[in-house]
Amino acid sequence: MKKIGILFGQERSFPKAFVDRVNSKNPKGIAAEPVFVDEVMQNRGAGYAVMIDRISQDVPFYRAYLKNAAATGTAVINNPFWWSADEKFFNNVLAEQVGVPVPKTILLPSKDMPEDTTSNSFSNLKFPMDWERMFDYLGGFPMFMKPHSGGGWKSVYKIHNLEELFKAYNETGRTVMMLQEAVEFDAYFRCYCIGRKYVRIMHYEPRNPHHLRYVADHKVSKELLNQIHDYVLRLNNALGYDFNTVEFAVRDGVPLAIDFCNPAPDADVNSVGEENFEWVVETAATYAIERAQEHKDGQNNLTWGTFIQNAAAQKSAKPAAPAAAKKPAAKPKAAKK
User: Fold this and answer.
1) What is the DSSP letter of 123?
2) Are 144 and 156 in contact (CB under 8 A)?
């Protein structure tokens, strides 16, 4: 029997519904359950063909547990090695490389020095920074300041002037922040992407109270929605996420990817609504079963994005060995007279 597990924290509606849905489908030789973590011995399998990770971003112990599970054959969704390395500033870099528009963004050093460092640790860093140059690049105020890594709306500031900027910056401590141009949008969409092939575009209004953010109906063309669908797949295929959300702000008819590093996205029925909840439960169950059916015992069952795949392919490609030089043909001996 192949087991599908879901590892979660405080959430309740999605994990239970996911387990129930997988089991209601009664796939041959496959069953789902909440993950049970006992003593974690190095290089010993966790006993699951597939695991969906909903909590390791907040619990380092779970992240290490999942890496051990992945290394011993579990197909972990999402890949815990990549998720550990990824962050939002890099997301924007890669988005531009695959042709997806994003807001102009600048990376800032943390206001306070990291633990166990001194000013001598930053010999290579320009000081003071040219704030005017950064403001010109971003197009001036307003702008947003947000963490370069992490999810949700934690430590996100909308900045309207210099006083607000430095007040916010002084509050950020050791958190590495980004400055980002503010996008005055005409429409906004939040999109689930599962398995890098299943996409659900949800009308969304981030300016509404939390419980009303999915109560929106933006009047846009079918062509724009098709473009958003394409951008969602481009981003998730490049990054390698098999369970993610991508958010787009539409400005002057152009969808800009605002946030797409959400590998444990909100899936609570009370916030996303019944229809979206039904879609994500059904689709996640379908995809997890597919991964369990494809699972190979004793092999690495992780997936990787094209950014890593292409880099690995380039590294492994060896130049062709030069052809061996041919020896000149021997001159024919002169015939004896």
Assistant:
1) T
2) yes
What are the residue ranges in the chain where pLDDT is below 50? 332, 334-337
Q: Which SS3 state, helix, strand or coil, does residue 179 take?
A: strand
Task: Summarize pLDDT for 191-206 with one digit per residue, the tens.
Answer: 999 999 999 999 999 9
- State residue 317's pLDDT score: 77
Identify the residue whose tokens are 């924290």.
9
Tell me the C-alpha distance between 300 and 309, whole Å: 15
244, 263 in Cβ contact below 8 A? yes
Angle (CA) 74 80 83, round 5°: 150
Looking at residue 64, its pLDDT comes to 98
What is the predicted pLDDT for the residue at 330? 52
Containing 31, the helix (H) or strand (E) segment is: strand 30-34
- Residue pair 134/106 in contact by the 8 Å Cβ criterion: yes
In DSSP notation, 271-303 reads HH-HHHHHHHHHHHHHHHHHHHHH--TTS----
* Cα within 13 Å of Cα(169), Cβ side: 16
Structure-token match 């943390």, residue found: 110
- Comparing CA positions, the residue from 99, 89, 135, 138 lying closest to residue 255 is 99
Gap between the Cα atoms of 250 and 142, Å rounded? 17
Cα Rg, the chain, nearest whole Å: 25
Render pLDDT for 252-281 as a digit per residue (tens, 0 to 9): 999 999 999 999 999 999 999 999 999 999
